[in-house]
Amino acid sequence: MKSLKRMAACSILTALLLGSTTVTAESVIQELYSEELTARTWEGIPIKHMDQHWAKRLFQWGISSNIINGYTNTNLKPDQVITEAEFLKMFYRAVGLAIPNASANSAYRPSENWTEGLYRTAKLYNHPTIGANNFALRMKPITKLRVAEIISGSQGVHYTGQYAVTYLIGQGLANSKATSPQQFDGESTLTRAEALQWIRQLALHGKLTIEQRPKIPTDLGLLPEMANTPPEVIPDFSTEPVTDEDFNLVIQGNNSELRFGDSKKSIDAQFGNSSGKSIFDDDMYPLFNAHFNQNGELDGWKTYLYEEDSIRPGVSRLTKKGIVLGESTITDVISRYGSSGVRGNGIIDYHYKKMNDGTYQDISIYDRISNMEDVCMIAFLVDDKTQVVYDIIVKSSLKDAF
C-alpha cells in the first residue's frame, strides 16, 4: 500500500490533472511530454456563472476531486437547496466510493434511476435516510440534522438527533460555530455550496473517511463534553507566507541542509555519492532523492519514510516550517502552510510564484497558470488512518513535476 502511495507521490501533479474530467487536462499532459515544448499554460478548472460567488474555489475543488458536477446546462446552482439524494451522491464521491449509475446520463444500468446505487450504498453502511423506500422523499431537501446523522455514522458511531449533533460539535466536524444542538438549528436545510463546504471541513480535519454505522446505538457516555466557546472552523482555503528557505530540506542529527541551487558536487560531498537514478531521473541518496537541472544544480527533492528508518535513531527530516517526516500531522501542515493545499485522499500540495521583489505569491492550481515553469510546488502525503506525513516533495516548477 505504502509503496503504491510513494509512486503516486512522484507524479502528484500528473495525478491531479488526470483526476480532472476535462479534455484540457489530458491535452496538457500529452503536450508536456514533447521535448520541443519549454513552457505550457494550465487552464485550471474553469467554471461558469460563479465568478463573484463566495464558493467558487470550493466548487473548483469539488469538480477536480470528482465530488460534484453541474446540471446539463453547466450551471452548478450553488445556492439551490440540496436534496437527500444529491447529498448522498456528493458525500459518497468525496470519500472515494464508486457509485454505479450515480449520474442521470450513465451508461450503467440505463433503465435504473441514478439514485438507486446511492441508496444501496446507504443501506450497506447503515446510514439513515428517508428516501430508501420512497422515491419522492429522495428529492426532498435534506435537513442539517439528517446530514449530521449521516456524517457521524460515517465515523463509525451510531447517534441520532441531538446526540449526533453533539458528537460532531465535540469533534469539530459540524461546520458550525454552535456550542449546542439548539444553536445548530438541525431542522434547517442547506444549499449545495454549504454542503460542499461541510465536506471540505471533513477533508481539512482528515476525516473524509467512511465506516459502517453500528447496528446498536453507541453509548451516550462516550459523547464529548460541550465547550463553552465556539469550536474553530478552519478557513476553506487559507494561506501562509513562504520564503526561499521553505524550499530546503533540513536534516537534524547530522546538522545538514539540502538547499535549492546547491551543486551536485557539494551534495555528494555532504551525503556521499548517489546510489543511482530513480525511474523519475532523480539521484538517490540514503535520506532523500534529488533532481538536478542541466547546470547540475538542485531544483527538486523528495523524502519519504523507508522501512529502514527505524535503524537511524536521532535523524529527522523536516522543512524549515517544522513539518517533521513521520511525526507531523495534517493539522500541523495546515497550521504552518494554510488550508489551501488540502486536496483530500491524503494529498496536500501548495503552489507559489516568485515575484520580482523576491516574495512568493500563493497560486491556485484551480485557476489559469500562464507559465507552469514560473510556479513551484511543496507537497505532502499523509497516511489515511494516522494522518501523519510520510512523504514530502518539493519542485522548482510544475512542468518539472511531470
Description:
The chain is of the alpha+beta class and 402 residues long. The protein has two domains: 144 residues, no CATH class; 152 residues, no CATH class. 29% of the residues lie in helices and 13% in strands. The chain contains 13 helices and eleven strands. Strands 3, 4, 5, 7, 8, 9, 10 and 11 form an eight-stranded antiparallel beta sheet that branches. Helix 5 runs parallel beside helix 11. The two termini are 22 Å apart. The N terminus is likely disordered. This is S-layer homology domain-containing protein. Keywords: Signal. InterPro entries: SLH_dom (IPR001119). Pfam families: SLH (PF00395).
What's the count of strands?
A: 11
What string, H for helix and E for strand, traces the elements in order? HHHHHHHHHHHEEHEEEEHEEEEE
Helix/strand-derived class? alpha+beta
Distance between the termini: 22 Å
Could you tell me the strand content as a percent range?
5-15%
Structurally, the number of domains stands at 2
**Are there runs of 5+ residues with pLDDT below 50, and where?**
1-14, 16-38
Largest sheet: 8 strands, antiparallel
Radius of gyration: 23 Å
- Measured as a percent range, the helix fraction is 25-40%
Q: So what's the overall shape?
A: globular
What is this structure, in a nutshell?
The chain has helices at 2-10, 12-19, 23-32, 56-64, 84-94, 116-124, 135-138, 144-154, 161-171, 181-184, 192-204, 264-271, 330-337, and strands at residues 249-252, 256-258, 283-284, 289-292, 298-304, 316-319, 342-344, 347-354, 360-362, 375-382, 389-395. By secondary structure, the protein is an alpha+beta fold.
